[in-house]
Amino acid sequence: MSTLARKKGVGAVIWDYLTTVDHKKIAILYLIAGGIFFLLGGLEAMIIRIQLAVPNNDFISAGFYNEVLTMHGTTMIFLAAMPLVFAMMNAVVPIQIGARDVAFPFLNSLGFWLFFFGGVFLNLSWFLGGAPDAGWTSYASLSLASPTHGIDFYVLGLQISGLGTLIGGINFLVTIINMRAPGMTYMRMPMFTWATFVTSALILFAFPPLTVGLIFMMMDRLFGGNFFDPALGGNTIIWEHLFWIFGHPEVYILVLPAFGIFSEIFATFSRKRLFGYSSMVFATVLIGFLGFMVWAHHMFTVGLGPIANAIFAVATMAIAVPTGIKIFNWLFTMWGGSIRFTTPMMYAVAFIPSFVIGGVTGVMNATAAADYQYHDSYFVVAHFHYVIVGGVVFALLAGAHYWWPKMFGKMLDEKLGKVTFWLFFIGFHLTFFIQHFLGLMGMPRRVFTFLPGQGFETGNMISTVGAFFMAAGTIVLLANVVITTVKGKRVGNDPWEDGRTLEWAVSSPAPEYNFAQTPLVRGLDAYWIEKMEGKKGLTPAEPLGDIHMPNPSILPFVISLGLFVAAFGFLFHQDHAWGTPVGIVGLLITLGAMFFRSIIDDHGFHIHKEEVMEAEKKGAGA
Amino acid sequence: MKKWLRNWRLVSLVSAMALLLAGCGKPFLSTLQPAGEVADMQYKLMLLSTAIMVIVIAVVTIIFLYVVTRFRRRKGEENKIPKQVEGSHTLEIIWTVIPIILLIILAVPTVLYTFKLADVKPMNKKERDVVVVNVRANLYWWEFEYPDYGIITSQDLVVPTGERVYFNLKASDVKHSFWVPAVGGKMDTNTDNTNQFFLTFDDKRAEEAGRLFYGKCAELCGPSHALMDFKVKALPRAEFDQWVEKMKNAKPVASTDPVVKQGEEIFNKSCIGCHAVTPVDGRPEQARLAPNLAGFADRSRIAGILEHNEENLKAWLKDPEKIKPGNKMTGTYPALSDEELEALTKYLMTLSVQ
Predict the structure, then answer these.
(1) Which chain A residues are Cβ-neighbours of B108 within 8 angstroms?
(2) Residue A91: CATH number of its domain
(3) How large is the ipTM?
(4) Minimal Cα–Cα distance from A258 to chain B, Å?
């Protein structure tokens, strides 16, 4: 397909991506959009660290700092980490389970465009009166008091992009339940697929509470509601509960796919099957389940009382057990293996000590009585960056290097990859390790500056220096991407040579239809089994025939655009007369597009047997 | 014997860590140099949890280092296929059970201390004989009301040492959080309800910390969240009682200095609508819009953050926005000439109860 696309003009390529329902192209869209937001969030992080490099700094103003810190958190969680996780899932999961696409290709595209327009909408706030400034948690009393439209952008933007995430989650649940190739039982699914499955279930249950909270806040701020106004019978603590009932599972929504990515990488580059596969599955499910039982540990200082605090403290500690199981299983996957230190493996190996530090500080935070000291201090900032950067970002970088050949047909340069790794790894520990101590020494989080004479100077300076290392690593990564795209050599099906799962059995990138013949899965690590028996390809489960494919469609784009316009109109409905009409027009665009989707009969198209044979021959020769 | 050995290891690890951590931070601010019963309990938990966690990290690191050095693919092993091991029930049970035991060791004191720290019964008795302070957090300043003595102060909290001091905590605008790191963990001041907790200030260690602890707002509350500091003067009980008596009986002193008189006039014209100057203020809290300035001259900081001198006071009065962005005082009074600033400053610096 890529050779075909290259012959077309730029306009045709753009149109292709606007209308695509192919999971592999949607993965690329997620990767590009998430990557851009990641750079934006990184830039915001650098502004934060420059401001905090020295006491009493006036690099940026206090109000602007709060906007930057809010947007850093919101962007990194919702607009960078989530879509990048979805990029990995889209690129890999359908192929890993031997499917030709996800269950609902149209919804897959809709999910992406909703996320994209939500993210763009949120970032427009920079140019339209000011970004949200109440932290990514947007606690109700402060966010209701915020004078600019920033919070409204947050509330509306996150509703739109959250809808996209929810749709994506449901899509993957259905895909994994229904679309597995013959023989791919649940206990033969690759670990990354399992992680995606559990994560999707978490999305299904975690995003609705957030949406409820966001709708309440939208009502309060834009339509005269009083859900969070204590003077009128509302209650701000309700927001905290709703937010964290979503917010804590969100951590696992991000980190479980990270665990999945590392499980694949450890097995591949140790040339061994995953140690304790069934206990890994069990641990993943258990973490997902317990993840919903612990949200109030974010609220130990709210004053819920000792009974609630004690229960949530113990429940939180319990999560350490399945997480510990995973750590040891990974170590013993490597034990006795033949470890090859490729770039993805470097990240995976570095992840273990980094994440263990983040995990144990998590248990420390769980000790409620001591958490009264840690809470809202830099200790917590250090803790969750160890989890999110040491876990999720490492995994995304590892996954990007690992599956890059599968997504683009070219290997990222290994030398530059290792340079990125070392810069990022050193910078990460330099930035965040010292912050544990800053917190214990009494430095609260979310401060735009600090006064001299409190013992915070050295630590903050070290932290800022570390941040520059990470920035340098990111620049090298970008250079690597550009160089690879321009000069990289095409690679075959299994460029790492030790691929174990189905995605390494198809060409790189995979053909539009993934598998010419649906494969028969004969065990865990299906491709590895075939390789060990000396076979080149997979055992087919069906004869070669015509392949039914979905048609591309612009409607997901239009539906999302309509909501974008509607949000824009309603946001300004109190300030401008055009607000409400524009809002209504936006909703009509969305509903109209949905109407057309309902009445147009779209049966898709077939790729004929001959074309498939032709493409396969070319793929084999590449 | 073995148990004894394990305990001994834990003890030595804990004491080594305590030595290491005690070097961190300032005695008036650091949680690692606890100065009272509450901070002590929390510090003990920190040490215990850190000790357990260091053990966990050590075990993982040892296995980790062994694995990544021992099992790296060497030259000539390119075609070696290692044995495909499914797992090991024994190992898996070991690394499930040991963490559970470690967590139980940690969970017991956690639950115990969580309940201990929540014991506020003495402050809610009808006939109470403990010191109770009502803390009200406002956009970038703190009010401290002593309901049993009928006095109010702000920014500098004054407490007796060597006994539990109880607090009612609430916020009047947005959520804040009350934190005196060296003396104990924080508790939020909500807009919806009143929270209660206690702190204890140890006399000897207060003395070592200069009898002035730093307090912080720990919940993002707006642009000047970082500057919403307060101070805690921890005095021996006798001195505290004296301070209370002085506050109760504080009377405005008529000054003969014309400059001070002029300052008082300016104050009465532009400031008194929000700021009270007597510690006994009968108005309801909704009317107390700004810090009570009784005893202002005795305070440790201007606006909670600047060194306490006339120059800084003038700078604050001239342009508070520059010092605490987003504060509620900016723009509530007419611009002051240099002469008026001088007079107002002189007047404010006479507000003493000492």
Answers:
(1) none
(2) 1.20.210.10
(3) 0.93
(4) 19
CA distances from A8 to A232, A356, A554, B78 (A): 61, 49, 18, 42
CB atoms within 10 A of CB A314: 21
Strands (E), A102-254: none
Sign of CA dihedral A490, A496, A499, A503: negative
The model's pTM is 0.94
Cβ density class A393-416: b for 16+ within 10 Å, e for less: bbbbbbbbbbbbbbbbbbbbbeeb
Q: DSSP label at A186? A: G
Task: Tell me, yes or no, whether A399 and A381 share the same domain.
Answer: yes
- In this prediction, residue A4 carries a pLDDT of 45
Mean pLDDT score of chain A, rounded to an integer?
95
Paired residues of B214 in beta bridges:
B231
Distance from CA of A44 to the nearest CA of B (A): 17
Residues A520 and A597 in one domain: no
pLDDT tens-digit readout, B15-38:
776 666 666 788 999 999 999 999
Question: How many residues belong to chain A?
Answer: 622
Q: Is the peptide bond before B34 cis (omega within 30 degrees of 0)?
A: no
Contact between chains at B226 and A270 (C-beta distance less than 8 A): no
d(CA A202, CA A196): 10
Mean pLDDT of all residues belonging to chain B? 92
Count of beta carbons in the 10 Å neighbourhood of residue A57: 15
The string of pLDDT tens digits covering residues A185-205 is 999 999 999 999 999 999 999
Q: How many domains does chain A have?
A: 2
Q: Which residues of B touch A376 (CB under 8 A)?
A: 177, 179, 186, 218-219
Q: Are A567 and A503 in the same domain?
A: no
Region A479-504: mean pLDDT is: 94
% of chain A with per-residue pLDDT over 90: 95
Which among B21, B106, B175 has the least Cβ separation from residue A139? B175
- Hey, of A141, A323, A380, A383, which one would you mutate to test binding to chain B, going by the most B CBs within 10 A of its CB? A141
Residues A253 and A300 grouped into a single domain: yes
Q: Which residues of chain B have pLDDT under 50?
A: 1
Taken as a whole, chain B contains a residue count of 354
Q: Which chain B residues are within 8 Å of A450, Cβ to Cβ?
A: 226
The reply to whether omega before A55 is within 30° of 0 (cis) is no
Same structural domain, A485 and A596: no
What's the CA gap between A170 and A187, in Å, rounded? 21
- Domain presence at residue A240: yes
- Three-state DSSP at A532 gives helix
In a domain, A27, yes or no: yes
Interface touch A334/B67, C-beta < 8 Å: yes
pLDDT at A594 over 50: yes
B222 CB neighbours in chain A (<8 A) are 66, 142, 145
pLDDT, tens digit, for every residue of B296-340? 999 999 999 999 999 999 999 999 999 999 999 999 999 999 999
Query: Could you report the per-residue pLDDT of A204-217, keeping only the tens digit for each?
Result: 999 999 999 999 99
Pairwise CB contact (< 8 Å): A325 & B95: yes
Interface test with B, best of A151, A290, A301, A435 (most B CBs within 10 A): A301
Range of the structural domain that residue A561 is part of: 556-601
Contact across the interface for B185 and A142, Cβ inside 8 Å: no
What confidence category does residue A328 fall into, taking pLDDT thresholds of 50, 70 and 90? very high
Distances (CA, A) of A344 to A28, A351, A420, A521: 19, 11, 11, 26
Q: Is residue A566 part of a domain?
A: yes
